[in-house]
Write a structure and sequence with these properties.
By secondary structure, the chain is an alpha+beta fold. It contains 17 helices and 26 strands.
Length: about 625
Amino acid sequence: SSFEQIRILRNILIASDDFIRASIIDKDGDEVVASNPKFEKSPPPPKNYLKNEFFLEIKKSHTYLISPIRYEQEKPLIDFYFPLADKYILKICVSLESISEIVDETRIGKTGFMYIVDKSGKIIFHKDKNRAINFEDVSEEPIVKEAILRAGAGSQEFVSKNGVEMIGAFAPAKKLGWSAIFQQTKKEAYSFVYKMRNTATAIIFAALFLSIVVSYILATSLSKPILKVIDVSKNVAAGDFTKKVVIKSRDEMSDLAVNFNNMITELSNFSKMQADKLSAIVYSINDGLVLTDENNKIVLINNRASEILGVSRDTKEPLFDIVKNEMLVSAMKQVYEKPEKVLEIDLSQARSFFVSVSTQIITDPDKRKIVGIIFIIRDITGVKEVEKMKEDFFHGITHDLRNPLTSMLGFLKFLLDGSVGPINEKQKHFLDIVNKSSNRLLGMINDILDVAKLEVGKMELSLIRFDIKNLADRVCGSMLSKAIEGKLELSCDDMPSITISADEGLIERVLINLVGNAIKYTPTGGKVTISAKENNTDIQIAVIDTGEGIPSEYLDRIFDKFQQVTGRSRGGTGIGLTITKYIIEAHLGKIWVESKLGEGSQFIFSIPKNLQKNDKGEICV
């Protein structure tokens, strides 16, 4: 009866809030009965479907049909047609507003969103409703092309029409001919490809649930795998890689589960590998390392730090509260407040023991905030002992070598000037050789002592203001005889008048050393030039020659002690350039060489302007 048919239709509509209207159509296209829960008292007027293309098609095919989406009052609707026996057709109008809301609300990050297209590449659901209502054609978008061509779910990197690098995932609703597209900028979304695929698949299965009207059980069976994937993904996000997705079907969900499980295995292996690497590095290095969180609680401490601080490796207490040595706590607090500082502490008791303490701040690059501190505790006992040996050597060599040699030179002077009696020419000749060799030996000893002084910071600088041009003229005058002897041109005529604050005697020694080397290694007819220029923060001085040049493999170590270019030894100790470097560095400056073999060399050094001494007597700018 009509009453019974209406009751059946209402029961169908009440099964879901998304069902809008149900009607039964006879073979002549007339609605025999129609129902809508919203019009209980006044049923909707009957319609005739004789000219409806879906009515005509289903009469021929006797199989269910699904209409394209249409929008009425900005709401997406779709019609389902089902043949009933041979006489009637059941038509159900379904609202897809819930899918539209899911699409509108789905976001990942700041740039990620999803939309759904039909088989021709036209938008049917989008966060921008105007694009969906107007069925905007996006079939030329690379991700849409790929989604339409492929039969299953997938992901792809592509460049949008705006030239932005994107990454997206897609999954099909085969029965409807739709494809769900999820896209996001590559920069933000690359690590979320699998999540995008799962999300897109979940949305599609929700759509299938609404579209397959005839089977609630089928929809339920589709939702269970999605819930399994979601549950396992939460465990993975929390760092638990032990759970796996188990789906006993033979469709795309089974493939997704296999891929998801493979991803979990890879993530687990990668996480373990990174943890093993970090553990091996942290626990094998000789320096003590302590990692604390933003509240100064110990997160990790290696063996060496545990030994030095007297702290158990298992403790998670605040670092400053658990360390008993007050000197260490004080030092760590200072470098904690000023991370650029490095403090050295004498912890000697029964034996010598020195450490240096420094820190490294750990920041979150995304949130731009401090998330922890690494304390680095380094055993510098060996360095301190070497420094003490250098000092002992410095004091010993001063008395054991230089004093007897100075005495010997004094007696040689008496012999040479005839104070102790006349000597013949042959004797004078040999005594001159001994005198020159002794002076050379004294110079070598003085050089070695100067290096020792500079290395341990014992060389005192006497800062005065002087004109660098006057100093260059004086050096040229003193080295002119050697230049004439080598038939070279020595020039400093183009030097500008620049006032500099430095130790004049030591800077003169630097120039004499550099000019002497230039003369020594420049062939006859060559030229040696001293030049200078003033910059914003420093003064740059160069000694330029047209000599033999230096092979490239020696440029990085030419200033090291006892280094001489192979095949170019022409006397000397090999520490002249080392002393030069130490003197410049003591002035907080830099020295370097630019040279090409066969084209000459430029030795350049720079000294900051306005050097001065602070209250502690240290050189500063």
